Amino acid sequence: MKIIISNSSPLPIYEQIKQQVKAAILSGELKENEPLPSLRELAKDLKISVLTTMRAYNELEQEGFVTSIQGKGYYVMPRGSQLMQEQFLREVERALEEAVKAAAMANISGEQLMEMLKLLLEVE
After folding, report:
1. Whether residue 60 has pLDDT greater than 90
2. How far apart are CA 67 and CA 53, in angstroms?
């Protein structure tokens, strides 16, 4: 996993880290139970404070994406965990909300949108 920090981003550094780790988990790039880089290792690689990496990891843990094991580090939560399932549901809800908004802007009816969704589900 490669994390890229942008100084020109309006997002704080910890948020950039959090979003990139979250995206890697949701895409499957980071597998369940896989260890994340240590706080010190990540801070050193990114040339940032350990406190910044700790904040990102702590928020990921609060959101149910990772778990910490005392003395061992942070690990990706299993996909079957209730917190992880809830996160996947929220991601799907956000994507569907965006699809509904885009459909409304394009004057696509709910019925047409449902047909599109059915076709997409058949492809999967």
Report:
1. yes
2. 15
